[in-house]
Amino acid sequence: MLNWRLALMPQYVRDYVMIHELAHLTHFNHSPAFWRHVECFHPERRTAQNWLREHGAGILALG
Fold this sequence. Notes:
Layout: H1 11-23, H2 32-41, H3 45-60
């Protein structure tokens, strides 16, 4: 299930979250193989992760 707050995030962050969640269908952990799989589909995943670290708490605080 995805959170409605994704709509408030930049497209590249939404793409990262979706790819991250879909990668769990193949890898049920956050192993190096998981991250390689994510990066195959979203090479700039670290930029998206940084955005989430910086802005994620504020987005989650919204009702």
